[in-house]
Amino acid sequence: MSKKELLVMIIIILIIFSLGFLLRFQSVNLTGIPSDDKAYYQDDNGLPYFYELDSYYNYRLTKNLLDHGYIGETLINGKQWDTLSYYPPGVPMDYPPLLPYLGALFYKIVNIFGSVPLLSTCFWLPALIGPLAGVVAYLFLRRFTNEYGAASAGLLMSLAPYYFIRTVPGWYDTDMFNMIFPLLVVWFFMEAVLSDNFRNRIGFVMLAAVFMVMFSLAWNGWQYYFYLLVIFSLIYFIWDKFQGKSVKNSFYILGIFTILTIVFAGILGGYLSLINLIYSPFEFLSSPNVWLPFPYMYTMVSELSRPAVEQVFLGVGISFFGGILGFLCMYRILINEKLKKQFLNKMNWFFYSFLIIWTIVGIFTILSGGRFIIMLIPPLVISTGFLVGLITDYMKFSSKGEKLDKLPEIFRKKSLFNLLPLLFVVLIISPVIINVYTNDYGLIPLVNDDLNAAAEWINNPSNVSNDTVIITAWTWGHFYTAIADRPVVFDGRMGYIETLSKRNFDDAYIYGKLSPSVSREYWIDKAFSTDNESLSVGIFRMLATNGDYGYLTLDGYTKNTTKSVDILNNILGVDKQSALSILKNSYEFNDKQAENILNYSHPSNPRPYILITNNGMVSKGYSIFHFGVGWDFTKQQGADITYSVGHMNRTDNILKSDNNVVLDLKTGEVTFNNKTPFCVMIIDNNSIKKQYPNDNSDFSIILIMDTNQSVVMDKGFEDSLFTKLVMMKSNSTYYKSIYENKDVTIWKITD
Question: Is residue 657 classed as helix, strand or coil in its secondary structure?
């Protein structure tokens, strides 16, 4: 490489990284939030709170690593254990550790030069790692095409909308690795296959294996990339063998890559990582809900919902269309030997076919959820880079021939014509830069000052004892374990579905695939959605003290989960003596069985717990009622319920919401779709007014004036615990408020 080429490469790398970082930096300004409201979403250091709540989980693990040298909360029988998640009993720590280790290292380096809080270093790290995907893409593509195509690929990779949004400052999650490592693995594997030098082949394939192992330490889904590369290569090389081609070296490369990956993944991750590697594809192909008849609440997670086609286009960006056009152009050139030597000399059918298959697999993974758009971006960006390289190569080729004479006179100067490739790249990249610069992507932190103040209040042992368990919607579980430092019964890892493949081989999972599970979502939703408060108390007491053991113990006797749930719903709302009578007389359990069940359902020394509600739970009411009182275990589906939330706006004397609720301020008349409700409840500054205008109606309307929200729901939900605590924010029969601010209320059971 000449000094000029090295200088050009360094300049392009600096441009890719700098643009990627600076454009990410602007998200710190919270451009989508009015200026007067910005401080509400910023911490004491003036930085926005994390944009998504998994970041708090990663922050907690990083804090643990710095505090006592490993990412779990404690060691139990030599195994790291997370005692704050899925309490009780917690879960074995099986999380990929690369991000916490990298976060701790970055914290240590930064604090050599000053004193910076861990939250702040974790906040900034994604903006430094995210642009590196563009740098890797550039270095990768410049081996196969010209600088224009490689630079375009680098910028498109770094600024791909879906990847960009998940690597801004404040998105401290594993997404930052999900393009870097696949690119590195594919790059060096292709180098190994294409190289004619034996030593180079060995070196490249070893690097591919090393980066695949590093990927295994970064993301639980790394196995799918491993299988994609291995299975595709195996089929392709076998096909070549049938075509009479020499494939000895190719099989050596594949064998070395496979063996090294398996061996080092086993050494670093233990035998359970190998179990996960073997069984994870079968879990992927099996029924998604292994915990039937409990509801599969993963369907309510937005990033696991199947995206619309336009969302895929927007997530990938211009590379979606550029990639498809690139595949067509590459195919046209590859089938012509002369054109191939002239424009795609370093490309072969193996590389091209892999990009096609990678794209197809990426499309299929998107069917499992929008978050997998990130798997579709790399092959399409690579193809777009090749397209730009081909077009600019053709421009240069044309400038050397007679075709230049056919252009208008102004373009006949070679010096001007030579600028066309650069202008073309600018034309391609400029809309991408403008898009990410002007689009705020709805970036609003999911935490605010009120949530943070509540968590810090809980963290004070004089307010909430260290042995107190938090029960709240799973959405905020990671946040409270990180900031309040108290265990939660349910959090963002939900049923720990990614651990299913190895549970039967790990004695830490006493119940194997049965626990952890999504069952807790049903029980929490049932407790909030029922109007039987004594039942709610019984459910929360059982969860906080014994977790899943109650229904699992019953399952051991009934061999029927639906029956077990029915039994618990009949005994949890009554005292222990009454529950004993029901178990013996109604369900014919013997004394020993009944006593064993009651030890879990009605514990003698229940664990103290608090309930946390906030305004954000209002929008989650549909899923709470759907998965709670609305769930039919026999049909394995939720009831068709009415629950709608709208935002109200005032015009003259009319309040109208975007869910078609209208309040006439003069007459006091309230309607929904021009129909009169059974009950109207107006909540305004702790004042609650009720009226019942239509006994024949099947729905109620709640107007929450403090937050300008209108809620339409089935009239049977009027007296639910959810309505009382979340919307009315009033003390109930069994729960009283012990802390309250504008957004958050903390409840404790009355003595």
Answer: strand
**In 335-446, which residue ranges form alpha helices assigned H by DSSP?**
337-343, 349-366, 373-399, 414-417, 420-438
For residues 127 and 167, the answer to whether their CB atoms sit within 8 Å is yes
User: At 590, which amino acid appears?
Assistant: N
Greatest CA span in the chain, whole angstroms? 101
Dump pLDDT digits (tens) for 424-445: 888 889 989 988 888 877 789 9
Q: From CA 62, how far away is CA 99, in angstroms rounded?
A: 8
**What DSSP line would sit under 598-625, residue for residue?**
HHHHS-SSPPPEEEEEEGGGGGGHHHHH
Other CB atoms closer than 10 Å to residue 684's CB: what's the count?
Answer: 11
- DSSP state, 712? E
Query: Do 685 and 705 meet the contact criterion of CB atoms below 8 Å apart?
Result: yes
Dihedrals φ, ψ of 580, to 5°?
Answer: -60, -40
Phi-psi region for residue 395, left (φ > 0), alpha (ψ -120 to 50) or beta?
alpha
Please tell me the number of Cα atoms within 13 Å of 215 on its side-chain side. 24
Residue type at 451 in one-letter notation: L
Asked whether residue 481 carries a pLDDT value surpassing 60, the answer given is: yes
> What global pTM score does this model have?
0.93
Residue 76: enclosing H or E segment and its boundaries?
strand 74-76
Contacts of residue 433, defined as CB under 8 A and 6 or more positions apart, other chains included, come to: 19, 23, 155, 159
Measured distance CA(66)–CA(451) in Å, rounded? 25
Place of tokens 């020394």: 605
* Contact between residue 632 and residue 641 where contact means Cβ atoms under 8 Å apart: no
Beta strands in 652-714 (DSSP E): 654-657, 661-664, 670-672, 679-684, 687-691, 699-704, 709-714
Dist. CA 491–CA 472, nearest whole Å:
9
Strand partners, 612: 746
Please give the Cα distance from 28 to 41 (Å, whole number). Answer: 11
Helices (H) and strands (E) in the chain, counts: 30, 17
Q: What is the DSSP letter of 681?
A: E
Round to whole Å and give the CA distance between 166 and 176. 7
List strand residue ranges (DSSP E) for 444-507, in order: 469-471
Q: What pLDDT shows up at residue 404?
A: 47
DSSP class per residue in 357-378: HHHHHHHHHHTT-GGGHHHHHH
Q: What is the dihedral sign for C-alpha 567, 571, 577, 582?
A: negative
Which of 385, 378, 376, 315 lies closest to 182 in space, CA to CA?
Answer: 378
pLDDT tens digits for range 186-215: 999 999 999 888 889 999 999 999 999 999
Q: In angstroms, rounded to a whole number, what is the distance separating the alpha carbons of residues 478 and 492?
A: 6
Residue 458 sits at the vertex; the CA angle it makes with 457 and 464, to the nearest 5 degrees, is: 120
For residues 149 and 385, the answer to whether their CB atoms sit within 8 Å is yes
Radius of gyration over alpha carbons of the chain, in Å?
30
Length of the chain as a residue count: 751
**If we measure between CA atoms, which residue out of 64, 80, 81 comes closest to residue 118?**
64
